[in-house]
Specification:
The radius of gyration is 19 Å and the shape is elongated. The protein has one domain. It starts with 6 loop residues before the first helix and ends in a 9-residue tail after the last helix. With 211 residues, it is mainly alpha-helical. The protein is 79% helix and 0% strand. Helix 4 packs across helix 7.
Length: 211
């Protein structure tokens, strides 16, 4: 993720604007804008754990922002098309060939990608636009989008809430970053495995000699 907003700045915004910071931070990230939404969610949960914010309002803000942001992303992808997506990809230094591979794999596993993509930084940003680009049926998208948003927000806010009572925010962010790398590695490995299995299935089968 493009971390152009410092942790200190996010803390200041969260203290000053509270739940609106969480809501709009997640909304913008899921729309396809490179905002550090995961960091904002963690900060919100952390402040709830330390008593500065209310847990349920942080959770509602994160969930609502995630659902609404991905819906915006869906319609941007639906009407904006491939040109807009490649422009967003340049912000992450992704080549068009990489986006083509992601798009193709996404189209084959759209429901899983929308739901599980919440836990992978790049997929969290691109899931909505890619779903629209792939013409995923909107009712199906809405169902998996809302389910994934609720599970992701609940997990992130709850873990941050309890961790906020035990460790520093810097230590918590270090753990979250490490976990994010693990999820990203698993996602890349899964995509690579699917590509390999698909390539293998296309290979001509060996002819068994007849007796």
């Amino acid at each position: 993720m493009v971390e152009w907003v410092s942790l200190e700045t996010i803390q200041d915004l969260a203290h000053e604007y509270g739940y609106w910071t969480v809501f709009f931070g997640i909304l913008l990230e899921n729309t396809g804008i490179p905002i550090p939404g995961e960091t904002i969610t963690v900060v919100g949960g952390f402040l709830a754990g330390s008593g500065d914010l209310d847990y349920w309002r942080v959770l509602a803000s994160a969930t609502g922002g995630a659902i609404l942001g991905d819906n915006f992303g869906y319609w941007i992808g639906y009407y904006g098309g491939w040109t807009l997506l490649t422009r967003i990809g340049r912000l992450f230094r992704l080549q068009e060939t990489q986006l083509v591979e992601v798009r193709d794999q996404f189209s084959k596993n759209a429901a899983k990608a929308v739901f599980l993509g919440r836990f992978v930084t790049l997929l969290r940003v691109f899931a909505g636009p890619l779903a629209g680009l792939a013409r995923m049926p909107y009712p199906q998208f809405l169902l998996y989008n809302a389910g994934g948003a609720l599970v992701w927000a609940s997990l992130m806010v709850t873990l941050s809430f309890f961790a906020g009572r035990a460790v520093s925010l810097e230590q918590l962010m270090k753990w979250v970053s490490q976990a994010g790398l693990v999820f990203l590695a698993v996602a890349v490995g899964a995509i690579a495995l699917m590509v390999w299995l698909e390539h293998r299935s296309r290979l001509p089968k060996a002819v068994t000699p007849q007796d």
